[in-house]
Amino acid sequence: MTTYWAELNTENIVQQIITGVDDANIEGIPTGDWYTNFSGVQCVQTYFDTPDVVAAGIGYTYDPITKIFISPYPDEE
Questions:
Q1: What is the mean pLDDT of residues 23-41?
Q2: Quick one: which of 37, 56, 60, 77 could link to 46 by a disulfide (CB 3.0–4.6 Å)?
C-alpha cells in the first residue's frame, strides 16, 4: 500500500507531497523520521482516502496541535 507524506517548511507550510511505503519502520527507523531524515525537512503523513479529513496539498498549513492541514483558500459558498 502507498502512503503519502507532506514535506513542510519551517512555517509548517506544505512544499511537496511524496509517496512512500506502508511500513512502520524503514531501516529500523520509524517511517516518518526516515522520510524527514531523507528529505532534510519535516515530513508528516497525510491521508487521501479518509472521509472527513483534509488531505495535504501544496500551500496548505499543518497545525501540529490539531494534526490537521488547513487550506490556504477560503471556503467556497
A1: 92
A2: 56
Size (the chain), residues: 77
List 53's β-bridge partners, or say none.
none
- Specify the DSSP element, H or E, that contains 38: helix 31-39
C-alpha distances out from residue 4 to 10, 18, 32, 75, 76, Å? 19, 6, 10, 24, 26
54-76 per-position pLDDT tens digit:
899 999 999 999 999 999 988 75
Q: Are 58 and 15 in contact (CB under 8 A)?
A: yes
Q: Which residue has the cell 519535516?
A: 42
Q: What is the pTM of this model?
A: 0.86
Tell which phi-psi region holds residue 71, choosing left (phi > 0), alpha (psi between -120 and 50) or beta: beta
